[in-house]
Amino acid sequence: MSADDRMRTPERAPRRDTTVPDVLALLRAELGERVDVSPASLEAARADKSGHASPGRPLAVVHAASVADVQATMRIAHATGTPVVTRGAGTGLAGGANTGAGEIALSVRGMDRILEVRPDDLLAVVEPGILNADLGDALAAHGLWWAPDPASRAISTVGGNIATGAGGLLCAKYGVVRDAVLGVDLVLADGRLLHLGHRSVKGVTGLDLTSLVIGSEGTLGVIVGATLKLRRLVPGAVCTIAATFPDVRTAAVASAAVTASGIQPAIMELMDASCLSAVHALLALAPPAPGQAQLTLQTDGPAAIVEADAIAAVLRDAGGTVAVSHDRAEGERLLAIRRSMHPAMETLGTTLIEDVSVPRSALPAMFDEIARIERDRSISIPTVCHAGDGNLHPNFIFDGPDVPPEIWDAADDLFRAALRLGGTLTGEHGIGVLKRRWLADELGEDQWELQRQITAVFDPTGILNPGKVFTP
Amino acid sequence: MSADDRMRTPERAPRRDTTVPDVLALLRAELGERVDVSPASLEAARADKSGHASPGRPLAVVHAASVADVQATMRIAHATGTPVVTRGAGTGLAGGANTGAGEIALSVRGMDRILEVRPDDLLAVVEPGILNADLGDALAAHGLWWAPDPASRAISTVGGNIATGAGGLLCAKYGVVRDAVLGVDLVLADGRLLHLGHRSVKGVTGLDLTSLVIGSEGTLGVIVGATLKLRRLVPGAVCTIAATFPDVRTAAVASAAVTASGIQPAIMELMDASCLSAVHALLALAPPAPGQAQLTLQTDGPAAIVEADAIAAVLRDAGGTVAVSHDRAEGERLLAIRRSMHPAMETLGTTLIEDVSVPRSALPAMFDEIARIERDRSISIPTVCHAGDGNLHPNFIFDGPDVPPEIWDAADDLFRAALRLGGTLTGEHGIGVLKRRWLADELGEDQWELQRQITAVFDPTGILNPGKVFTP
């Protein structure tokens, strides 16, 4: 099956043993007022923050308040063959939680309690709906910290972070979600509850299903709880380094030089000229010089100051104009520019945000490829990049709700370039609906089929997020 | 199905469409002199370092020198329904690579090349048969390091470390194998080759099958290559702290106090009095005081000296007699005592090495349980412990090749105590044959069945390491 065939394949039709009114009646009988069919709620459940939406509206939004609510919903869905899309805060960027006609939107956003914090064991047990930033605030009171910090952390849930295998700004130094989850409680398609993983630092009993669930985008079960691996807050100074470069390629070469120097910054973010202009406009800052690209870095821990000075020297040698700040507030102000990237893109039009990740040494070559695609296709691709881990977010901007064919073609060109450079389709956003057409190109047909069979072990009747990630 | 039922269930009989001479003839026709039927090789393939062996001898040992050799072997095994047990250096401690009658021992020990080292991308691509310590030596020349360091690192292979999800001494600070592998090349039961994972820091394309393979103990495929996530060698001093305590419980409380203090040592090892005596005898050192237990710790990185002093203060407050050394050679000498633990146990008799792991705060309670089991059953259970991550190795010593029923009963008591304390059956050694009877007790029947179904997706005819981990 070619990628084109997959593009033409319609989404898997749900098995239906029951009529829609029956499903609603069953849900209401079990869950009462947690079943929400208000037009505003149904409309909101169609979309995430990718700017893309399902063609139709779901049957209902179920606002689960407990594991039992989730199990009841899944038992009804299983019995009636009704598809279920699990949703947190709806901040995904690949359409993975978009819910369409005939489907139940199962929201776990209301399950937002912290059940346990253990400073002595460096773990916390949480419900999936808690916001990443709210968890961070609660943990800080104990001197603790859950490292994954997607740019969306103020508005995205921990459950969503786990379901997408979210990344963030600190990954090169402090790891990705996979490194920070010890266990997951999972409700299966038929409503049974499994406890995956462990509470200890080490544990190799059986297959590592916790890791399998991380990044599975709602295709294996509903995450109803998580045991998180915590860190202690890093003591000492935080230094922020801002460096501007005459063009993006020079900035990319400079970032690769930092990585090659052996000093590990906590954060190293790159913004190209289009991004920088858009953010400066959004924040009402003075416009940057034409073509100017920016690197923003932070160092932390006991060697923060020494490392910041060493990095500044590398960046100057690479042609940068460099300023170092030891002030935390100033550092936050500089990083706010980076965190405003997504809202700034939204001001320009509808965006298709790509998420390719390449080995760090290939970063300059990847920016060359982006420049080539811009030239070849006469389009602008504003790009921001987690330069410390080689993860780029090139943004394709267009008018209207649907991705035009020429934008899909440009995205295809971009993805194939990343693959040629040893990279991957998605570093942290997931496949969802927006990237599913390329999944088999990266995995190969054999692995694609094997993965699909694994999802069928968890979900034999195909009711969990059908049409996402794997399209038959 | 109860644990007792599982204990009585015989190992799964291999499907056989062909006679033994046919299988050998097919292997020889494809692989020539790589097919080894010498009595010494067949005998060696029956056992690992657990001290336990399969009842019979395998059909043959195939010494694979390439991915193509592995694929050829698996195609023949698949066509003839012959079970295959993958082996590295045979240093496992759970019997996972023990090969018995009617089975092919597929050794990848000869595939020991380093294919690529990328300091700029902090990755290496290796074949599975390279010894962990040999890889370490080669990487050190680049200023690099693969963090997983099982106590067996001088004699165990990287492929075996991945297949068992091996741990080691440095896990609390520097992570386990799962944290240090980006991708795995896997030959499936039918001989097809899959490339799992990625070369970039981030990557969430599809399900995380790399993590699923880590710790799968030869049940999902044959690991023929790995892309490893490296660290830079940690610069600066290494400080070693040795502390003795009047009894093991005081030492355990002291180690929990170090963890709770928020200082993260690189290594924190605990040895009880029986272990310490046995190792001192093996190394011809003066005998320790009766009942004396020992903690050995190391700190590293830019704050090593400050942290060592702070840890020493915590240990003294907890009743320890403490010595701090800033000399690397002296530190290595102190750690050599810990690394001699397994050889020392071998001098006492046959050992059944347990591997329970508990949340770090539960360490003193777990030592209380071990003392209770020793009292109740009038046995000695020499115990060494990776105290930094709550992973204990209680050793049951007995005469002769087979575990006596009363030792199985004591091990059962121990495991159930660990589970009550929020722990797990195996922190780093794996299930193999020695712990399979308890697997469903920890996972629950539903998860056990789900995991078994996942193995069937990879290995539909059940030829990969049958009878290990999952017993039907």
UniProtKB/TrEMBL annotation, chains A, B:
Domain FAD-binding PCMH-type: 54-233
Taxonomic classification: Bacteria, Bacillati, Actinomycetota, Actinomycetes, Micrococcales
MF-aspect GO terms: (S)-2-hydroxy-acid oxidase activity; FAD binding
Cofactor(s), by name: FAD
Protein keywords: FAD, Flavoprotein, Oxidoreductase
Name this protein carries in UniProt: Glycolate oxidase
Top-rank taxon: Bacteria
Tagged with keyword Flavoprotein: yes
